[in-house]
Amino acid sequence: MSVLREVGFVHLHVHSSYSLLEGALPIAKLAKLAEADRQPALALTDTNNLFGALEFSEKLSGAGIQPIPGVQITTAFEPADPTQRISAPGTADLVLLATCEEGYVNLMRLVSRGYFDVDLGAEPCIAIEALRAHGEGVIALTGGLRGPLDRALFHGRSELAEQRFATLHAIFGDRLYVEIQRHGMEEERAVEGALIAMADRHGVGLVATNEPFFPGPDDYEAHDALMAVAEGQVVSQDQRRKLTPEHGFKTRAEMQALFSDLPDALTNSVEIAMRCAWRVRTRKPILPNFARPGEPGADENAELRRQAEEGLARRIRAHGLAEGFTEEDYRARLDYEIGIIQNMQFPGYFLIVADFIKWAKDHDIPVGPGRGSGAGSLVAYSLTITDLDPLRFGLLFERFLNPERVSMPDFDIDFCVEGREDVIRYVQERYGETNVAQIITFGTLLARGVLRDVGRVLEMPYGQVDKLTKLVPQNPAKPVTLPQAIADEPRLQAAAEEEPVVQRLLAIAQKLEGLHRHASTHAAGVVIGDRPLQELVPLYRDPKTGMRVTQYNMKWVEQAGLVKFDFLGLKTLTVINRAIGLIAQDGGERIDISSIPLDDKTTYDMLRRGETIGIFQVESAGMRKALVEMAADRVEDLIALVALYRPGPMANIPVYCERKHGRGEPEAKWYPLPELAPILRETFGIIVYQEQVMQVAQELAGYSLGDADLLRRAMGKKIKAEMDAQRGRFVSGATERGIAKEKADEIFDLLAKFADYGFNKSHAAAYALVSYQTAWLKANYPVAFMAASMTLDIDNTDKLSEFRREAQRLGITVAPPSINESGVEFAVREGTIIYALAAVKGVGRQAVESIVAARGDEPFKDLADFARRIKPRALNKRTLENLVAAGAFDALEPDRARAMAAVDPIFALAQQASEAEAGGMIDMFGGVASADVALRIPEYTPWTASERLQREYDAVGFFLSGHPLDEYEGLLDKLRVQRWSDFVRAVKSGSSVGRVAATVLDKQERRTRSGSKMGIYQLSDQSGHFEAIIFSEGLQRYRDILEPGAAVILMMQAGIEGEEVRARIGTAEPLDEAIAKHQKGMRIYLRDARPIPSVQQRLAARGEGEVSLVLILDEGAQEVEVRLPGKYLATPQIAGALRAVPGVVDVEIS
C-alpha cells in the first residue's frame, strides 16, 4: 500500500476492446501499457458489461499489476413510468468499482439486470432502485460527460444535478466520488467548475480520470472510424459522437501534469485503488446436483450404479457381447469405471448427461453415437450417453477419465440441429432457469470484414472496396491477417502506393483488425450451476432468443468454476433423420439407424468405388482416393481412415493399404517386438491411435493405463524434462521385462513420434460409425438420402449443385422447382427428387410456407388463380421474380418473360382479392368475389435462350433446364472441341491434352508455395462441372477472359491423381471469337421489311466482324433476298438477340 501512495495516479475509468465497437484496447495491450509506465494498479470499466473481468484480473495480476474490477453502467434516474420496464429518458452512465467480493457479486447482479430488466434487444440499463438494492461493497464515480451530473449541468439543470447527487450520496455515502476529466472538450470545460463546487459543498471526494479508449494519439483516427462503424455513420459526418486524441492511455506523468492544479483529485485516484484491494479469482469446478431435494437419486453414487448396471443388462440383451469377452468381463470393467467415477466425485456429471440424452431420445431427437474420448467409457455406453461398445472397438476408459490426473470429464454430445434447442430448454426446466445458461462468444473484426467496414465509413466506392477485399485470401480455418495479405499481394501494395485513400484504408483497418465486433451465443457450450448463475458469473441476454448467456467466454467461464456441457448441433444427424422420414413417407419402413448391419456389402462396394459425395467425413477427393486404395470392407478401416487422414499420419495410408492387401513385407516384420502384435495387428503394424501408445506402454513397460495416458500427454507436449523422466521409467520397466535397453529406447522413440501423430480412437470410432450410417443410407436409399442432404444444405448453392450432379450420376431425376409440385424442402415422389421452393435464391422460408398453405390440396390453375389465392403481405416482388426466373411458374406460364411481366399485376390482383376478402365480398359459390378476374399483363420483350438460362442460374445457382453451350451445339463440332466427360475418358485412356468448351462459373486466386499466383476455376459444360487451374503466367494473360459467366474454349492439359483427373489450362479464347473465325455467313428471315432498321441497329452495336449478311423477306408468293453491304459478327448470342426482334422469323449461321 505504501507503494501505491507514492505513484501519484491510478487509472480508474478504462475501456478495453470488450466495450464492443467502442474500446480499441485489447486486455493484453492494457497490461503492456500499464507495465511500461510501472503503474501498480488499473481498473477496467467496460460499458455495461463484465465480459473481460476475469481475463483482466488474471493477466494484470500475472504482470504484477493490481486489477480493479469495475463497469460503466447505464442507469435510469427518472424513468417515464416506474411501473414500466426501463425506458431511455433520464438515463446516464456511472462508473462502479468493486472493493470486495460482496461488491463484485453486486456488480454481477447489476450488470446482469441491465440486460434482463429491459425489453428484449433494448440497450442494457438498470433502475436506480437496483443500485439501492445492490450498492454494498461498491465505489461509485459520477461517470464523466455521460454521467448523471455532467449531463444535467451541461444542459443548465443544476437543480436536477443536485437531486441526482443527493440520490447517489444516499446510496454510496463516502463511497461516492465526483469524477472530473480533461480531454480538451468544450463540454468538460463548461461543467468542471460546477462539479468542483458540488464536491466541495458536500464534502465529497473529487477524482481525476482519463477514460482511455485507445492506446495513444496516433490511434485516434482509427478509433474515430471504429465509432462511425458502430453508429452506422461515416467519418465525415459532424452530427455523431466524437472523442479527441486525448482519450488515449495517458502515463502517470501526463495525468499529474494535466491535473497539477487539483492534486487531491489525483491523490483520490490512489486512495480508491487502495480501497479496491480485492480481485476476481479463478475457482475449482463447482459441480451441479443431479437430483433436487426430495427427488429419487439424491445418493448419486448409488443412483449411478443402479442406472449403469440396469443399462448394461439392457445393452447385452439387445446387442450381445463383443467377440472374445464374457459377461464377467463387462461387469468387471463396469465396476472398475464406477469406482474411478465415484472416487473422483463425478457421478452427478454422468447422471446429468445421461438424463438429458435419455430425454432427447424419448422425444425423437436424434443423438450422435459419441464424440471425443467419452466413447471409451462402458458406463457411458450403459447409460446410453454413447452407442459404441468400448470392448467391441478396443476403446480405453483412461483416455477419457484418468485416475492419475484429476480433471473434469468432458462429454461432447451431438444432437440433431433441429432438436438441440429443445434439449437445452428441457435442461433449463429440469435444473432451474436461473441455474442454466449458454456461453458467450465474440465475433472479431477480421481482415475482409474490417476493410469493408472502414471503406464504408471513409465513403470509398463500394466496387473499389470490394475489389480490394477480394485480394485478401479467404480461409475461415486459418484467417489471413491484413499484414500477411499486404505482404503477399503486390496488387494491394500497388493500390496503396497509387492512391492515398487506399493507404489510409489499410492503415486504419490494420489498427482495428482483431478487435471484438459483437457478442453472440456459442454454438455448443451450456453451463449448469448449483445455484443462480449470477452469483458466480455475470450474465448476458441473447438479443434474438432471450436466452441467458454467460458474460465470460468458453475459456474464462470454466476458469470461474462452472462446469461446461457441450450441446453440439451435428447436421449429419439431421440428414439421417430426414432421410429416414422420407423413406417412410415414400412407402418404406421406419428404419432404426442404430440397428443397421455393419457388414453391408452394398455399402462397402460403394465406398470402394469412392462414391462418397454427401458421406460424413469422407467426401473430400483425398478421402475418396484413400477409400479406393484401401478397398474398405469393415468398420475398422473407416475408423483407421478417420484417424490417418491428417497431416503427418497421412503418409502411412499407402503402407496401411499395401499391408491390408497382402503386399510388401511379411506380417512378422510389422512389429518391433512380437508382443506388440495383438495391439497393432488391427492397423497392420502402424501406430494409428493414442490408445495404442498407451497399450504398448502398459504391455512392455508395466505402466498402468492411467500412467500411460500421462506418458502420452508428455510425449505430445515434447517437454524435455518430462520426456527424459518418462524415458527413464519406460526403459527401466521394459528391461525388467527382459527387453534389451537399446530396443526399449528404440520403441520409446517410435512411440514419441506416433504420440504426436496419433488420433483419439474413441472419437475416430464414433465418427466412423456416423460415416458408415450415412454411407448405408446412400447405398440402400439413394433418393431419400440425396433429398435429405439437399434440404440440409438448402442455403448452400455450391453444395446443392454438387448434390444435383451426384443425383444425375446416380440416375436420379431432380425435377425443377414447380409452384404446384414443390414444397418448402426437397421431397421424394416415386423415385424422383422434387426441387424445394425455399432453395431458390432470395426466397424466404416464410414466403414459401405461405404459398404452400395457399395451394393446399388444389394446384393453382393459372397466374390469375395464383394471384387471387396468395397472401400478398407474405411475399415480395423479388420472391416472385426469382421463382419465375427459376422456372417455378413454367406449369402456369411457359414463357418466363411473360410471367416476369405479370409480377406487378399479380400483386395488384392479390391485393384486390385480399381487400375483397377482408370486406366480406363472397360470390355465389362461396369464393372471394373479384370484379377483375383477368390478369392484365403488359407488353414485354421476350428473353433469348441465353438470357433465360442466365436468369435461371442467378436464381438457382446452377443451370437446371439447359446449359449456355446448348445454343452452340453443332458449331462446337466444327471447332474440334470435346465435352468434359469425353476428355476425362481420353485422359484415362492415356491422352494428356484436349480442347474443351466451357462456361466459367467461379474463380479463386491463391498463392503457391513459391509465392507466385495461381487461379482455380470452376467450369461447366453440358456433361458436368469441373475444376481447372492456371499458373501465374497464364493467369496474367487470360485473367480478363476467364471471368465468371464467360463462354470460352480452353486448351487443357491433364493427368490422373488416384481416381481424379487434374486439369490445367494452357490457353483460353472467348468462344464467340473462336466461332466468328469459322463463320461464313448469316441469313435472317423476316416477315416483311419493317424489322430491318432494328436488325441493323443491333448488328451495328456489336461491331464489325468477318461474316456477310443476307436478309430474306417473305413477300407472300415469293421470298426476296437482300444482301447487306459490310461484314458482321455472327455468334449464337447475336442470333438469339436478333430472334427476339419483332418480325424476325429465324436466324441461320453457316
Automatic annotation (TrEMBL):
Family, per entry: Belongs to the DNA polymerase type-C family. DnaE subfamily.
CDD domains in the cross-refs: DnaE_OBF (cd04485), PHP_PolIIIA_DnaE1 (cd07433)
Alphabetized GO MF terms: 3'-5' exonuclease activity; DNA-directed DNA polymerase activity
Record-linked InterPro entries: DNA_pol3_alpha_NTPase_dom, DNA_pol3_alpha_thumb_dom, DNA_pol3_finger, DnaE2/DnaE/PolC, DNAPol_HHH, PHP_dom, Pol/His_phosphatase_N, Pol/histidinol_Pase-like
UniProt main location, coarse: cytoplasm
Reactions the enzyme catalyzes: DNA(n) + a 2'-deoxyribonucleoside 5'-triphosphate = DNA(n+1) + diphosphate
Subunit structure: DNA polymerase III contains a core (composed of alpha, epsilon and theta chains) that associates with a tau subunit. This core dimerizes to form the POLIII' complex. PolIII' associates with the gamma complex (composed of gamma, delta, delta', psi and chi chains) and with the beta chain to form the complete DNA polymerase III complex.
Role summary: DNA polymerase III is a complex, multichain enzyme responsible for most of the replicative synthesis in bacteria. This DNA polymerase also exhibits 3' to 5' exonuclease activity. The alpha chain is the DNA polymerase.
A GO biological-process term: DNA replication
Domain of life: Bacteria
Gene designation per UniProt: dnaE
Subcellular location, record wording: Cytoplasm
Polymerase/histidinol phosphatase N-terminal domain ranges (all copies): 10-77
GO cellular component, as recorded: cytoplasm
Protein name per Swiss-Prot or TrEMBL: DNA polymerase III subunit alpha
EC number per UniProt: 2.7.7.7
Keywords linked to the UniProt accession: Cytoplasm, DNA replication, DNA-directed DNA polymerase, Nucleotidyltransferase, Transferase
Signal peptide: none
